[in-house]
Design a protein that fits this description.
It is built from six helices and three strands. The protein has 174 residues and is mainly alpha-helical. It is elongated. The two termini are 25 Å apart. 14% of the residues are buried. The mean pLDDT is 87.
Length: 174
């Protein structure tokens, strides 16, 4: 495959954006992600309002009753929804810190993984994040409060597969 001109099916070609956060600078896996969303961007991404026009006020009762079903798709994000998106976005980006494909550490770890796989000793002994704490978050809540809706809306703004032709690397953000 000519990586200069073709992007594999199902993937988007990586477009890189410089990062202001020092830990994210120079990491193509982070630079290929969409920009860090503002709170206003998150609200816009999450909000689902039914279609409405003033003309509908003059419709028959039967037609207006049909429009009530649209309210089942209504979603107005609360502060906790914005906090959840911010938290997941941060965890995703932080998960790539130390995993830049062009770094010495990445090459060293990849070599060790390869050697362990070839020798049959297993893959459990190599860590990408030596001496780094891991960010985690539990998503627990009552049915119908927006957990799935929020996650779907957030991930709809992130490509599921990003192809980095310079590294011949596929990135699967989620």
């Amino acid at each position: 495959m000519d990586s200069e001109n073709l992007t594999p099916p199902g993937a988007v070609r990586a477009l890189y954006s410089p990062q202001r956060v020092p830990a994210y600078r120079g990491n193509p896996l982070i630079e290929a992600l969409p920009p860090i969303p503002s709170d206003a961007d998150i609200v816009t991404q999450l909000m689902r309002l039914p279609e409405f026009s003033e003309e509908q006020r003059g419709w028959t009762s039967e037609e207006r009753l049909q429009c009530i079903a649209q309210l089942s798709h209504f979603f107005y994000p609360l502060a906790r929804h914005v906090e959840l998106v911010r938290s997941v976005d941060t965890m995703m980006r932080e998960g790539y810190v130390g995993r830049a494909p062009q770094s010495r550490d990445h090459a060293r770890i990849s070599q060790r993984l390869y050697e362990q796989q070839k020798s049959g000793t297993g893959l459990g002994q190599v860590s990408f994040h030596q001496n780094r704490g891991q960010l985690t978050r539990a998503l627990i809540g009552l049915s119908g409060i927006g957990k799935t809706s929020v996650m779907r809306a957030y991930f709809n703004n992130i490509p599921p597969v990003i192809y980095h032709p310079d590294f011949d690397l596929f990135q699967v953000p989620y």
